[in-house]
């Protein structure tokens, strides 16, 4: 693998010497996990290779990232552009510039959170301001139907979906779409290289015409924002989206329904827990003083 990647990058003029890759399995040793290789040195690289069971995963992720980068324009700086892509044996692969992950030690982790989270929140707001567009009701209708089939009876998500469906048909709901990462938790946030203040990875679940506020709620959940802090961000997003308070929960549930219909390898029980946590956090934030 080292020789293959090195020769490809040397042929492109991106390297002057061969590389030494060491295997680093980011998703564990499961048969459906991507293989991840790293190089050392000043200009470190990350090489991802699709698993045998799903040989097109890396190519799909690269395509979605490229589409998002193109749509966002200057706001696409956090989306990494591969140095090389292709196929090795039956699997697709990508070579990406290395970006440093957030610190794991307690003190440094706190500093990283303070530095990075404000840039992530600011970026999400700019995406909403510049790329929010009106859409029809059908994506929301389909999403809520999928969510109703997946949510546990009596759960916060099921109760929210029932209320959302009533609001959807009231004539007062304002359907909107925005570009959506879809899995914006701190594990997918890395340090950036100027002009990007941070880097976002794992775009396989992204959507060019996604649902507002989902990425915001997921980021707030992962980075530990208080309901009051999330309330302030929601107020800014409401102004950017031109929506009512009641629309916010419908936007969130629309995104959850979108992913309920696309669970893939995710366990339904894990999805239900994540969905309930998101619904409860948004509910607390909306009413926070």
Please explain how this structure is put together:
It is a single chain. With 289 residues, the chain is of the alpha+beta class. The protein folds into two domains: 96 residues, Phosphorylase Kinase, domain 1 (2-Layer Sandwich); 182 residues, Aminoglycoside 3'-phosphotransferase, Chain: A, domain 2, CATH 3.90.1200. It has a five-stranded antiparallel β-sheet with strand order 1-2-3-5-4, with helices on both faces. The chain has a three-stranded antiparallel β-sheet with strand order 6-7-10. Strands 8-9 form a two-stranded antiparallel sheet. Helix 4 packs across helix 8 and helix 5 packs across helix 8. The protein is globular, with a radius of gyration of 20 Å. The termini are far apart.
How many structural domains does the protein architecture include?
2
What is the CATH topology assignment of the largest domain?
Aminoglycoside 3'-phosphotransferase, Chain: A, domain 2
Q: Radius of gyration, rounded? A: 20 Å
* Helicity level: 40-55%
* Estimated share of beta-strand residues: 5-15%
Unreliable residue runs: none
What pattern of helices and strands is seen along the backbone?
A: HEEEHEEHEHHEEEEHHHH
